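> @MW can you paste both from yesterday?
MW: sure, first one:
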Amino acid sequence: MSISDNLKKVRDRIASAARHAGRDPSSIKLIAVTKTVDIERIREAVAAGAGVLGENRVQEAKEKIEKLGPLASWHLIGHLQANKVKYAVKLFDLIHSIDSFQLAQEVDKQAAKIRKIQDVLVEVNISGESSKVGIAAVDAANLIGKAAVLKNISIKGLMTIPPFFDNAEKARPYFKKLSDLSTRIGSENIPGVSMGELSMGMSGDFEVAVEEGATMVRLGTVIFGGRN
């Protein structure tokens, strides 16, 4: 199947999962993950309507953005190192991976230098796995409260990566936990903070994530095929 066919199929699956949960399909944003995908295939995806592209690494995104130009909106979905922040704020419309106050401060500082207010999500290690980055769920509200005073970042919601399961249903409790955490933090009405976005769900489990409230799903393999 072509990338265009894959995108159509994926959109249908998102819409079906949304309707099953009584949600409006248009409230869910598809992020086409372009990690290791070549420029021509990315162009094909954009031509087929992929308006948001997600990259894991700043350097790889930089090279692609220079070649593609402003064809789409770019999101950083991978871990952000402090020494790459000055490039990230120039490249990305949304950074999904703020996981410490120090990183939030650095993003704020570098965004201020280019007179930008950088939209960000806070990455939560919802499973508590030691192999994963992200702030612990119990510390997320505190981080958001502290980061909310920073003038050049705007917190838009939460992101998580649950454990990998062969059966997507097993990921459901983790998605629900993030959704509940978002509601809880939202109820605190922290000035300048919006809990409007929930970035959760990848190729193997996105339908379950949508049913549990995802507003952004990060999909690579189901669009572009297996990675090299």
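MW: second:
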Amino acid sequence: MSVARSVLADQARSVAVGLALGLLGARLAAPVLGRFVFGVGPSDPLSFAAAAVALVAMAAGAASLPIRSAVRTDPGILMRDVR
């Protein structure tokens, strides 16, 4: 289980950094981009929250394959291949 936790922690760090930078960039670009989007305010918190939730959900789905692969791999085989 510690292998899964390690892979998930790596993914979580990447998602957190990407989410923080993306939200900051979106907040800075909102006044300019707000002219092109109709019906949504430039600083609509619901839109920002929905985008963040969607990103986290996609990242969790993307992390499931490496986690499954890491958990199913025999540690003995991995130790033999390391030289």
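> thanks! The helical segments are 2-33, 45-72, 75-81.
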